[in-house]
Each structure stands twice: as structure tokens, then as C-alpha cells.
Amino acid sequence: MRTPLRWLRAVGIGAAVCVVVVTSQADAAACGNNSQRLGIPAYWGTEGTGPGLWRRLANEAPNASLAIVGIQASGPGPVLLPEVKRVVDRTRSSGVRLLSYVDTSYTNRPVDTVLADIANAFIWYGTDGIFLDQAANTCDKLGYYQALHDYVKSIRPNALVVLNPGTNTDECYTKVSDVLVDFEGTYDTYVTWSPSDWVRAYPAKRFWHLVFGTSCASQMRDVIKKSRQRNAGYVFVTDTALPNPWNALPAYWRSELAALGSSR
């Protein structure tokens, strides 16, 4: 399934920076079934409105610490970009923990190519983990992701591995990830969606929901309530829509932070 985090390929953006943010590393580690953290895809870039959005993120959600940095369509790209490195360093200094965006194209990208992207992300940008996008969700593909998971952990044992199938996933993928994005889609879809039954057996910090097209604050609060009931430790809700729902902060941003207990 092609989900909105693939917008970089769709619009041909080059040096964009993509960040997903949650609370502090200690809080994230303690995140259980009854606690919840902000997880925001911040596909803002380093030009135009981007710098202002980065400042708001650092100033208004200062304990944020988990992030996806996507430099080019499939990963960190062929060379280090100094302007992106500066954004990464400033964002991390505010408490944000960074994940590098790497596309897997449902196992269609060669493993060696993905491994090279992972290595470059760690070397160039000093990120704290990897966000593997377009992840498969059936166990017949598990070996591919096992290799990626093991490589990440061999480089940085405490690094986070996040898989984004964006939909319900076979339970076997808990073996090769720290966090699974098991929902990415619209508000209208989310209100009738249900997670897999096995999800309840795991801590909420293992799951992440991304919901766009949520037009007002009351709908946002409805999503947060439902996401807690559905065992999501990380969530982000926005009023923006396709083709790129992750290119701005929602109009109810401060209310969302308050609802999650994440505001300064």
C-alpha cells in the first residue's frame, strides 16, 4: 500500500528533512499501555517555512526525542548535505531523537542498497535509529527485515528500528522492530479501523498511529482517545491532507500537545 510518507518520491523533493518526534528517551522507554507520546512526521525541509516550523517544534515540544530524517526519496542520498546536518544537530540539541528515513519498497530494494543507506545515515547525520518505510506486513518477507534490523543493532545496539507498513501486520514483525506503524491514513478510515488482536499482548510503546485529514480539534481528541484504546504509544493527528499531509503543523497544534501532555 502506498501511504503518505512516500510523498518525497511522488513530488520529487530532494533535500527535504523528515522528522518524527516523540518525548524524551527515558519517557519513551517507560511508555506503557496507559501512557502516550507525540510522534510527528515533520516533512518541512530547510527552506521556506521549514526553519520556522523547526523552531516551533523545539520551543513548543521541547522534550521531543524521536525523529525521521529523510534527505532524498529513498534515504540519506549520495552525499552529506551540510544544511541538513545543521538542522539535525539543532533539533537533537532540543531533545529530539532522530531516525533516518530509508525506503524498503516492500523488499523490492536490494538489501545491500538499503544497508548502505543505513550506514551513511549513521555516519553523516549521527541519527539514533532507522525508519524503514514501505515495509512488508506478511511473514514470508521477514528475513529481509531481519537482516536490516540486525545490521542496525550491530552498528548501534541502542538504536531504534521502526517499521512502517502503515497497516495491520503479522505478529512476526515484532521480532525485527522496536516500533511498528500499524496505521497511517485518514480520519474517516481510522474511526472504523481496528488493530490486530495480537497487539494487546505488547506494550503501547511498540505501536504508532499517524492520522491525517482530521479537520477539527474535536476530531483530533477523538483520534487520541481511540488511539489509546487501540494500544498506540505514539500518535500524530493533523488536519492537512494528501498529497503531503506531513508538510505543516495542524491548526490545533497546541491543543494536540496539551491533549498528549507534551506542551511546554
Task: Write up this protein.
The protein has 264 residues and is α/β, with parallel strands linked by helices. Helix content is 33%, strand content 16%. It has one domain: TIM Barrel, CATH 3.20.20. The strands form two sheets. Strands 2-10-9-8-7-6-5-4 form an eight-stranded parallel beta sheet. Strands 1-3 form a two-stranded antiparallel ribbon. α7 links the parallel β8 (179-186) and β9. Residues 7-15 and 23-33 have low confidence and may be disordered.
Concise structural overview:
This protein is α/β, with parallel strands linked by helices. The chain has helices spanning 7-11, 25-30, 50-60, 82-93, 111-125, 142-155, 187-190, 217-229, 253-260; strands at residues 18-19, 37-38, 42-43, 67-69, 98-103, 129-133, 160-164, 179-186, 207-212, 234-237.
Low-confidence stretches: 7-15, 23-33
- In spatial order, strands of the major sheet run 2-10-9-8-7-6-5-4
What profile does the largest beta sheet have? 8 strands, parallel
Mean pLDDT figure: 86
N- to C-terminal distance: 37 Å
What is the architecture at the second tier of CATH? Alpha-Beta Barrel
Quick one: overall form? globular
- Rg to the nearest angstrom? 17 Å
Helix segment tally: 9
Question: How many β-strand runs?
Answer: 10
How many separate domains make up the residues? 1
**CATH class, anyone?**
Alpha Beta
Helical residues, percent: 25-40%
What fraction of residues sit in β-strands? 15-25%
CATH topology: TIM Barrel
What is the string of SSEs from the N terminus onward? HEHEEHEHEHEHEEHEHEH
Quaternary state reads single chain
SS-derived structural category: alpha/beta
Organism: Actinocrispum wychmicini
Keywords: Signal
InterPro entries: GH, Spherulin4
Protein name: Spherulation-specific family 4 protein
